[in-house]
Predict the 3D structure of the following.
Amino acid sequence: MTHQAARESALTQAGFHLAAREFVSTWSGSTGRTFECKAMRWRMGEWLMTGMVDTVGLSRLWDERWPGCSKLPYELRGVQDRWVRFHTLPGSKRYPDTETEYEIVLARHNSVLAELVAGSALLMVTAGYSDRPEPEEPCRSPETVAVHPDGRYWTSVCMDDDPGFESYMHLYVSQTAWSVGCWDPLLRQVADDVIGNVLVADVGLRWLYHPYDGGMDVILPSMAERDALQHRHRDWLSAHPTGL
């Protein structure tokens, strides 16, 4: 193993570990019995890899991968040399009105994610809000919890520190399996602006993905990779000179 490969492996291991196998079982409507464990999940005829996230290790890994970069999803575009924004509907239309338009939105999200995800697992981060630096449960909205029930509190970020107007975003993370379409319920809620400030990343934090109502911000490991992705989906780019 090369020095660089060893370093990459150590960084990834510093951030994540799979919990011990601890099985529970539940009934899931007409689909029959769903067997769950903290390391693997059986759903719809396939094993899905899941895992608990070492949040302290994740913060160290973030500082290593993205030094000086805000954890606020809407500020990720500050990494200008590796950032690209795609819109999710033709003509930069913001909100879908028909099922056909929802299909286009979800297809664009899944198309880009399919190019980014190299393995079978990724990190999903959702947000809650309060006027205090520590979350008070329940922190996230019921809609957010419904589509991301496994989220574990990771960290809090100040959004506004003006006296009397302090506000904080509280981030919840899980390591989860990914396949095309598996996060469509969450992405549909994002498209409708029911859920905001979602962040997706690979388990090594090599790329970052922020879906929002109207599009997606993608941060790639290098400028060359950004340029290649941008070229492949150039028809989805904004006509605005800033790329927004």
